[in-house]
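L-threonine dehydratase catabolic TdcB
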Amino acid sequence: MVASSLPHSGSDGPDGSAALTLDDIRSAQKTLSGVSRVTALEGSRHLSALVGGPVLLKCENLQRTGSFKIRGAYTRIAAMPAAERARGVVAASAGNHAQGVALAASLLGVRSTVFMPVGAPLPKVAATREYGAEVRLHGQVVDETLRAAQEYAAGTGAVFIHPFDHPDIVAGQGTVGLEILEQCPDVRTVVVGVGGGGLAAGLALAVKSLRPDVRVVGVQAEGAAAYPPSLAAGRPVALESVSTMADGIKVGRPGDVPFKIVGELVDEVRTVSEDALSSALLLCLERAKLVVEPAGAAPVAALLSAPEDFEGPVVAVLSGGNVDPLVLQRTLRHGMAAAGRYLSLRLRLTDSPGALAALLGELSVADANVLDVSHVRTDPRLGLAEAEVELHLETKGPEHCAGVTASLRRSGYTVLD
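Predicted C-alpha cells:
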C-alpha cells in the first residue's frame, strides 16, 4: 500500500500547512456529512459496451450547487478559526467555485464576496447571488478577476478562498474518492478531469491510500493542458495561453499543493480534443439523460477517444453540470457535427424560379432534415445566372453525410464545401 501522507514542495505546503493524509480526507468527510450529497453512480450501457467492461458515472453534476466544488469550499471555511470567519471570505471564479464558496459561507454564517468576470454567464451570476454572496463583476478574463479579489482581501482582511491550491480544498475534494471506493469496491480505473488539480489530487490520495492497485487517469483539454509539460519539468509550468470550451478545467498553471500529489499518485494525465468534449456532452445528454458541462464530460471524452485503454470497472467522474444554455446549444451542435449528425454545405445552383424548391426536394429524397437555409443571389463571385446556398442539415451519421453529398453531385449541383 502506498503511503497515505504526502509532502508538498518542501516539508509543508505554501501556507505552512502540514502534509495531507488520508485521515484529513476522512475528517473532511465527517465535516461534510449532511452538507454535501453522496452522489449516485449511474451505469452506462453504451460506454460499457465500448470499453468491454462496466462503466459507471459518478454524478457530481447532481451535487449541491451543480458541482463538486462545495466539498472543498465548505471544508476550507469550516476549518477557519472564528477570528478569520469574522473577517469574511472572498473568492474569484467564473462559475462553479463561486457558487460553492457562496453556499458554503452561507451555511456557516460567514459573509462572502465573490468576484466574477464581466462576461460571466448570467445564470451563474444569479445563482451565486442566490446562494448568499455579494457578487462584484470585474475584469474581462479570470486573471484580472483574481487580482481584484486578492486586492480586496489585502485591503479588507477577508480570507481568500483559492479554488484548488490549499490543503483543505484538496482534502474536501478527496471525499469523492472515498465515496467511489464505498460505492464500487471492485473499481479498477477512475477517470477524472483535471484543471488546477484539486479534485484529481484529493481523489488520487484517497483511492491510492486504500487501493494502490486502482489506476487513476487525469484528463485535460488539449487547449488547456498544463499538467503534461509541468510533470515533464518536475514543477508547475504556466501556459502562455489557454483555449477550450471546458471552462471548468481551463487553468493555465497547476496548483502548488495538488501538483506533488498528482505527480506521485495519478498514473497518467491525457488530453482530449474539443470534438471529443462536445461528443461526450452529447452522449451524456442523449444516452445517460444527464446535463453535464464540457469540463464534467472530459472523462467520458477520454473513454470515447480510446476505450481500449481502460480496464473495467471504470468510474468516470462527471465533475459538474453548470452549463450556460447558449454554450450548451453551441456545444451540442458541435457534438452533432463531430458525430457526423450535422452537415453544413455550400453549393451553387441556377438562379431560376423553382431551383431552390428543387434542391430542397432532392434533400427530402435523401432523408436529410434541413435546419437552416441561406440563399445568396448577389455576389461578385457569382455568374449572372447563378445563386449560392448555404445549408445546415441534420443527418444520421458519417455514411449518411457522404451519401447526401454524393446524391447532390449526381444531380448536377456544384458542392463547394
